[in-house]
């Protein structure tokens, strides 16, 4: 249903990094046609220029939405990460500016789990080396160092949406699954939660990382951790590049302590497909290197486009912040008719709600519905009043913006 909010054409959607066209379809079906679309990421200067009049921006994992960039966008009302990770966005800076950030927490998880499973089997069979040699005309038919997955011990670090799916898939191959997570998690199948990272590293033949990037995970696998792993063990990282110390991995591969690796993510990744890529890992035939394509399948990208565009359109239309990662969550229906809806985003400090309610009371306006949620720093309130004409609503909005503590206020319909 196309919602009749005000001035939809004023809402510019800036979509970067080739987000799936399903996102454009959803936005257009919701009545938003002011869409600026780029197949790649923009460099800093171009991004600052493009974002300055954007109401919404959609990115994937490459575009860094730093505080400086966010502050170049005075009209910015919402950010969509068309992926799982949100570490590329300064979430605190966005909250301070009253900007909710949405992502797609599930849509590409199966794609990552499948890729990781395939890579583990290929590495256990030493296929990357045999493949590299065959491409050079060398026929090396041997069984040395080649193993079945059945019966091997898989250690999963981070037992969330991806880690737990991998656990089920690996058990179906006959692998024994162990996992380490900072939270206590329900083990699926016969998987076993380990009490520490060290215990997991010492137990596993194959280790796969599925943690987010945060201060506790940066360089969580370095020289010390490689030394705790079994000789000839295999490491897979399709989480975030900064989680593994790449130089330490290169040393562990050079000394043959680590038997192989599959790495999809790097501490520093090219900003576009036209930029060159280099890594100390390129010298090893027993390393599968992929260009951050864990979630890059047609199925995942199409679903992500639909999911995140729907969240942005819903926020713009109704004020719903359900599943925002940095913001108080408010989910509310669009009333059939007869109301005008305002939103007010404010610093979470005493007196703001009283001031807002006084504003409406002083004008003799009946509040038909009010929805408030707060986080430690931000308060978010959606106010429905008995319908008023546009000029009056604009006057109210002007006053609402002047309430002490207000970060942002909008009239939705
Ligand atoms: N390569 C790709 O294309 C690709 C695609 C999707 C996701 N990812 C990355 O994979 C990550 C994991 O995705 P997910 O959907 O499984 O996330 P998730 O949030 O469902 O799971 C992450 C798990 O890691 C755990 N964790 C957090 N810090 C930890 C720590 N220090 N030690 C141990 N466990 C810790 C959490 O408790 C949680 O269970 C994402 O954050 C994203 O960065 C990469
Ligand atoms: O966080 C994610 O979902 C993955 O890293 C995928 O990112 P991408 O959309 O840039 O491929």
Query: Structural class given helices, strands, pairing?
Result: alpha/beta
State the end-to-end distance. Answer: 15 Å
Q: What share of residues is helical? A: 25-40%
Strand percentage: 15-25%
Descriptive account of the structure:
Keywords: NAD, Oxidoreductase. Pathway: Amino-acid biosynthesis; L-serine biosynthesis; L-serine from 3-phospho-D-glycerate: step 1/3. InterPro entries: ACT-like_dom_sf, ACT_dom, AHAS_small-like_ACT, D-isomer_2-hydroxyacid_DH, D-isomer_2_OHA_DH_cat_dom, D-isomer_DH_CS, D-isomer_DH_CS1, D-isomer_DH_NAD-bd. It catalyses: (R)-2-hydroxyglutarate + NAD(+) = 2-oxoglutarate + NADH + H(+); (2R)-3-phosphoglycerate + NAD(+) = 3-phosphooxypyruvate + NADH + H(+). This protein has 13 helices and 16 strands. The radius of gyration is 25 Å and the shape is elongated. Helix 1 packs parallel to helix 11 and helix 5 crosses helix 7 (about 160-170). The strands form three sheets. Strands 8-7-6-9-10-11-12 form a seven-stranded parallel sheet, with helices on both faces. A hairpin with a 3-residue loop joins strand 14 and strand 15. The chain is an alpha/beta fold and about 425 residues long. It has helices at about 20-30, 45-50, 65-70, 90-95, 110-125, 125-135, 160-170, 195-205, 225-230, 245-255, 300-320, 350-360, 390-400, and strands spanning about 15, 35, 55-60, 80, 100, 155, 175-180, 190-195, 205-210, 235, 260-265, 285-290, 340-345, 365-375, 380-385, 405-410. The site of nicotinamide-adenine-dinucleotide has 30 residues, from helix 5 and helix 7.
């Amino acid at each position: 249903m196309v919602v009749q909010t005000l001035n939809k054409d004023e809402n510019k959607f800036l979509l970067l990094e080739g987000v799936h066209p399903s996102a454009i379809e959803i936005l257009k079906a919701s009545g938003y046609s002011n869409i600026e679309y780029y197949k790649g990421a923009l460099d800093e200067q171009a991004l600052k220029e493009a974002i300055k009049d954007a109401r919404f921006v959609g990115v994937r994992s490459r575009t860094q939405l730093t505080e400086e960039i966010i502050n170049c966008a005075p009209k910015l009302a919402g950010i969509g990460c068309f992926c799982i990770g949100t570490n590329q966005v300064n979430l605190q800076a966005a909250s301070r500016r009253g900007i909710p950030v949405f992502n797609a927490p599930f849509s590409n998880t199966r794609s990552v789990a499948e890729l990781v499973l395939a890579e583990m089997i290929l590495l256990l069979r030493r296929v990357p080396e045999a493949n590299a040699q065959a491409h050079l005309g060398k026929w090396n038919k041997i069984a040395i160092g080649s193993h079945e997955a059945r019966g091997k011990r898989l250690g999963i670090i981070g037992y969330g949406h991806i880690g737990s799916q991998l656990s089920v898939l690996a058990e179906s191959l006959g692998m024994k699954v162990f996992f380490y997570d900072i939270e206590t998690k329900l083990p699926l199948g016969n998987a076993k939660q380990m009490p520490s990272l060290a215990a997991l590293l010492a137990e596993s033949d194959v280790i796969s990382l599925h943690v987010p990037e945060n201060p506790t995970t940066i360089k969580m696998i370095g020289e010390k951790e490689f030394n705790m792993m079994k000789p000839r063990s295999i490491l897979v990282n399709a989480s975030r590049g900064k989680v593994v110390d790449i130089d330490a991995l290169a040393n562990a591969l050079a000394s043959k302590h680590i038997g192989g690796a599959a790495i999809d993510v790097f501490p520093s990744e090219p900003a576009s497909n036209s930029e060159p890529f280099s890594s100390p890992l390129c010298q090893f035939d027993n390393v599968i290197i992929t260009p951050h394509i864990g979630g890059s399948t047609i199925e995942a990208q199409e679903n992500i486009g639909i999911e995140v565009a729907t969240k942005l359109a819903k926020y713009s239309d109704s004020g719903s912040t359900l599943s925002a990662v940095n913001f108080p969550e408010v989910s509310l229906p669009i009333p059939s008719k007869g109301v005008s809806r305002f939103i007010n985003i404010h610093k979470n400090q005493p007196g703001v709600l009283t001031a807002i309610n006084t504003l409406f009371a002083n004008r003799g306006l009946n509040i038909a519905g009010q929805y408030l949620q707060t986080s430690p720093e931000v308060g978010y309130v959606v106010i429905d009043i008995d319908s008023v004409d546009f000029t009056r609503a604009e006057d109210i909005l002007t006053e609402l913006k002047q309430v002490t503590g207000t970060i942002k206020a909008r009239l939705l319909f």
